[in-house]
Amino acid sequence: MIPRHQKLLFGILLLASLVMSVTLWQLRERAHQRLIAGQDSAPTSAPEVAAAEQATLLVASDIDGSMRTQFHSLPLPDDPGSRARAVLGKLLDLYAAPDAAHSVPGGGSSVLQVFLLPVPESAAAASVKPKSAESSSAEFRANKPSAAPREQPQTGPQLAVVNLTGSFADSHPSGIATETLTLLSICGTLHANQPRITQVRFLVNGQTRSTLAGHADLTRAYLAGDAAPAEGMQP
Question: What is the pLDDT at residue 49?
Fold first, then answer.
């Protein structure tokens, strides 16, 4: 003979099970409807991707202090500044690889932006000191757009302002040789892919910085054409 209180308890448990089953079924139906709605609202076409082109990289080696040419197929956008940033991103990705001959942490995300400016005729003629670091930084901040750079037809030489992250500079191996190799390989890579880039300046988080990691000067303009040495030769 089953006691009355056990029958009552059994009835309560059975009722709770039925309520939970109905609730779970309703939640399942709602989730299914949300999934269908999400699929219906998803874009039907994939976003456009830039066409792959051959990029020339000047890759540094710490073994003999040289830079060697490598060719890589990369998706490169039409905008010149974005193209330069994409090429440098690949270069720094190579340096961040575990087996890199020139090991520098950070990778492609270390390049915040490459901003292209026309080189004044007086600066192009006088290559010693074309523009102060302060004026380059001020012009970069004053003309830096929120979305895409405002492109104007340019036919003359260009100054590339490479804006690096602070974490890249802070974690870069210290030493005049390794710092100089990084800067020269960036300059040479820019010039190899966009020959109108004749000068390069460096900023860190949009600000001027005296050195990269304690040695290589970041207050001067580098002549990009002089940063591409003969194959296997020291810069």
Answer: 63
Which residues are 210's β-sheet partners? Answer: none
Note whether 87 and 114 are within 8 A (CB).
no
What is the predicted pLDDT for the residue at 128? 38
Backbone angles phi, psi at 101, to 5 degrees: -75, -20
Q: What are phi and psi of 115, to 5 degrees?
A: -110, 125
The overall longest dimension of the chain from CA atoms, in Å, is 110
The bridge status of strand 158-164 relative to strand 197-204 is parallel
Q: What is the pLDDT of residues 21-35, one digit of tens each?
A: 878 877 877 777 776
Angle at 109 between CA 190 and CA 94, to 5 degrees: 65
Give the residues of the chain that fall short of pLDDT 70: 1, 35-50, 121-154, 228-235
Looking from the CA of 34 toward its CB, the CA atoms found within 13 Å total: 6
Let me know: does 57 contact 101? Beta carbons within 8 Å.
no
DSSP-derived secondary structure for 101-115:
SS--SS-GGGEEEEE
